[in-house]
Amino acid sequence: MVRFFSTKISIAVFAFPALIAFTVFVIYPLIPEVVISFQKHNGFRSDGFVGLANYYEVLSSKSFGKSGLNTLIVVLMSTVLALPLSLALALLLGSQGQGTRRLFKAFGMFPAILSVTVIAQMWLAIYEPEWGLLNSVFKAIGLEDWGREWLTDRGTVIYSIAVAFLWQYIGLNTLLFYTGLKSIPQTYYEAALIDGAGPVKSAIRITIPLMQDVIKFVLVISILGSMGMFAHVEVMTRGGPGYWSRTIVYELYYRAFMSSDFGAGSAVAVLFVIGCLVVTLLLNRFVARERLEF
Amino acid sequence: MRRKIYRRTIQLFLIATGLTFIFPLYWMLNLSFKSKEEVYDNAFGLPRNWFFENYENTLKSYHFFVYFKNSLIYTAGTLLLVILCGSMLAYCLARMNWRFAGAALSYISLGLVIPVQVVMIPLFMMTMSLKLQNTYPGLIIPMFSFGLSACVLMLYAFFRSLPRELEEAACIDGCNVYQSYFRIILPIVKPALATQCVLVFMNVWNEFPLSYILVTKESYRPLTVGLANFFLQIGVTDWGLIGAAMIMTSLPTIIVYLLGSEKIEHALTAGAILK
To answer: Does CATH place domain A48-286 in 3.40.50.720?
Structure first.
């Protein structure tokens, strides 16, 4: 039967529209990108090949180094701070009754459904130096010296943007973890209780190991997501002060679309693709997903 | 007794944390009813004079309805194409007898590794030379292409789990492959399609980088980009207007969320269990 349905024509009709679109708009653009990265190009017209000059210029520029470091900071903050926080919230949520869970779910999902522009602008108000939420809170509890101009201070700017970025997905990640937690059969906990394990011990010894599928999934999406951070930077600081809050993607955007140097922009993009591939390979190597069966 | 106190403390902590997720939104709502001056000396209290003019004044320079219409068109177009073409490809890979099905599946998975930001530059130049810049298809087609991978991979898993007898029965009853697909198979995977619809909707409605780069004309901007430009235009002095624009922009999403929060939650967490 299947054979009867699978004529050449029907396969073409089913498979080709998607495959063609995917090839033309996702895979093919990588080719002109690599080509342009070896050219002097202003977006409309090429001034010929310049060899590795774009790469040399990008790699030796301070702004690229800074943007790489900033991207690394965001990725590290998402894995070392935001992820364990979501996990802890999910574990706490597991011990609670229906009402609290419902409430937390409804609230926690909220930031994730709002548009990035709204979130970024909200955080501009929070970081506002004169009447913003953060400095007002510090003032109210008598820690006025802690207040500062979060988004124009070179030392704090990237951390401030990263917090805004990560905050948006903490609730959602908590829910992802919670979903994973709920799929663990109750019998394991009963056994642990009989063996005299308390709630902390059973969380460390049972829940977290059995949740590794979900943990890996969230790890992968948050690393790849934070590598591509762009909108928050554009709305909150436009990369400023100077180039101090640029991320790799912002650097790419700035070079191509703000200073009309598509060659250098493409060189950044090619370096970024290589970075993405390396990270994906490393993740696949070290956090390979063997499915757990209960 | 001690256990109970622990539980209470955790409960309070969680509720407090939950509140921090919606407090900024409440604050924006609050700001949107304050005049430019009042924001500075009464940032958190309820407005002393309710300043409804903010909404009126915002609408003068913030073309909300234009952006809203554009967002609807972009989202609907992308959604339709992703679901139709994505499900068909997934079906072909999962259930048709095609020599290259395995290769095509790996090929389409590449899309998960290539973030859209990477190819912003060539996409910009391609849409320009194809004369697609500042047209609806000019944004819909790239967004559709980038939405395919996730959709195909998820639906592939669903189609695999269906019994073979479905097509056999359809065939015996005289259906051709298209009838069997659209009349029998698709209705069966409706729940998975609904999940995909929610995911694609969320992604496209809130999409930023691609729309920001590819759409340069005011009258074709979607909400996210229109809002960002409105903020750039008025600067950070009049927070009453900013608040009003934010509330207006978020309202449609919030309404959708309130209507289908359970579906949305299910869709957003589905990926974690399935993948």
So the answer is: no
